Amino acid sequence: MGWCCCITWLWSILAIGLGVALFEFFSRKKRDLKGKHVLVTGGSSGIGLSVALDVAARGASVTLVARDVDKLEKAQVEIATVISRVASGGYVQYFSGDLSGDPEKIASIVKDAEVDLGPIYMLVNCAGFARAQTFEDIPPWLVKQLMDVNYTGSFIITQEAVRSMKRQHEGVVVFTSSQAGLIGLYGFTAYSAAKAALVRLAEALHMEVKPYNITVTVCYPPDTDTPGFEEENQTKPVETKLMSETAGLLKPEEVAKKLVDDALIGSFTSTVGLEGFMLTTLCAGMGPITDAFSFLTQVFLFGIFRAVSAFYLWSFNKIVDKEYRKRQACKKSE
Ligand SMILES: NC(=O)c1ccc[n+]([C@@H]2O[C@H](COP(=O)([O-])OP(=O)(O)OC[C@H]3O[C@@H](n4cnc5c(N)ncnc54)[C@H](OP(=O)(O)O)[C@@H]3O)[C@@H](O)[C@H]2O)c1
Ligand SMILES: *[C@@H]1O[C@H](CO)[C@@H](O)[C@H](O)[C@H]1NC(C)=O
Ligand SMILES: *[C@@H]1O[C@H](CO)[C@@H](O)[C@H](O)[C@H]1NC(C)=O
Ligand SMILES: *[C@@H]1O[C@H](CO)[C@@H](O)[C@H](O)[C@H]1NC(C)=O
């Protein structure tokens, strides 16, 4: 009798929890971008360009920030075409600047961008690059540059944008991390560390800006078919390739659409695909709780996903072992 009662209670609590979660999941309000100003760093290529095209189609005005003026100009034309198609009355402008450069210059880009298009409503940090190499092969200047662009660059431009968002009492901030920012993967000693640093930055910032009606989202793209990915592919160790292949190669448009949707809902994490869902659930840790649905999946699926992770880790270690043996055999035959 006692047991039966206990189980009934447990199930009732579970059912109520799930009900609340589903209700919240379907009633979450997506904010609107019509007439708003969106700044995209790295908006001239890859995921950043796809994000810029996506927000332009939703009626936003867009500022692009990257280094290469030729690429920026081409992107501007592409985005202007979308803006005139949707007839939103929006505008697209660009600023050329190095996010790993002078902090004052980076901050002044935000100020200049706001002169014509008004206060920034949404900031998407997409500028960045990846390099996979074995630990001892990574040149020290590259370690520093990875940190400068991928971490410090995002930090400084976000500081300036948040100052402005706090004054407006509204805003959306997005950081682009990587699935490699959630796990330390072979070949990514420098990259994983830089991308993981962004996650802690985002968690702390989330806590600070919540009262100001500003949301923070971290996007974890899997391998995505971009110019940046092609370049990264050139130096990737075979082990890294074999491991990341398991998740497939996505189109930047898919990643961008999900990123914008999740950010406008105010979800803390954004990811595409089953692997991404599993990883973000596993790595939720002390991260902010932004909706009941993901919170419940974390509470109830963590144990199972941790068990599944053992299979992935086993297969990753098998790859490392196999390539190691191959190299040893090569050495011996020389
Ligand atoms: N593609 C993937 O598989 C993948 C997976 C996980 C995470 N990510 C992350 O997603 C983001 C976008 O990647 P992507 O593949 O779309 O890259 P991408 O095609 O190479 O585009 C990178 C963009 O960032 C700009 N940029 C690079 N360094 C800069 C700097 N120092 N200052 C200002 N702008 C700079 C580039 O323009 P300029 O060169 O002209 O400056 C370009 O617009 C990156 O943070 C990347 O780490 C990508
Ligand atoms: C990270 O840094 C690398 C190397 O500087 C750069 O190629 C890449 O675009 C950066 N990624 C981000 C998101 O800043
Ligand atoms: C918060 O921001 C949204 C737009 O992002 C706005 O519609 C809403 O009125 C703001 N709420 C407060 C309390 O300022
Ligand atoms: C990456 O490089 C490998 C060869 O090492 C090639 O087979 C593969 O098609 C490349 N992938 C992309 C997306 O460039």
TrEMBL record:
What keyword terms does UniProt attach to this protein? Endoplasmic reticulum, Lipid metabolism, Membrane, NADP, Nucleotide-binding, Oxidoreductase, Sphingolipid metabolism, Transmembrane, Transmembrane helix
Q: Which Pfam families match?
A: adh_short
Localization: Endoplasmic reticulum
Task: Please list every transmembrane segment annotated in the UniProt record, as residue ranges.
Answer: 6-26, 295-316
* Gene Ontology biological process terms, A to Z: 3-keto-sphinganine metabolic process; sphingolipid biosynthetic process
Q: GO CC terms on record? A: endoplasmic reticulum membrane
Q: In which pathway does it act?
A: Sphingolipid metabolism; Lipid metabolism; sphingolipid metabolism
Instruction: Please list the GO terms describing molecular function.
Output: 3-dehydrosphinganine reductase activity; nucleotide binding
Name where it mostly resides.
Answer: endoplasmic reticulum
Q: Where does the Ketoreductase domain lie? A: 36-223
Q: Which CDD domains does this UniProt record tie to the protein?
A: KDSR-like_SDR_c
Determine if NADP is one of this entry's keywords.
Answer: yes
The record's catalysed reaction(s) read: sphinganine + NADP(+) = 3-oxosphinganine + NADPH + H(+)
| Catalytic activity, EC | 1.1.1.102
Asked if the record carries the keyword ATP-binding, the reply is no
Function text:
Catalyzes the reduction of 3'-oxosphinganine (3-ketodihydrosphingosine/KDS) to sphinganine (dihydrosphingosine/DHS), the second step of de novo sphingolipid biosynthesis.
* Family per record: Belongs to the short-chain dehydrogenases/reductases (SDR) family.
Name-wise, this protein is 3-dehydrosphinganine reductase
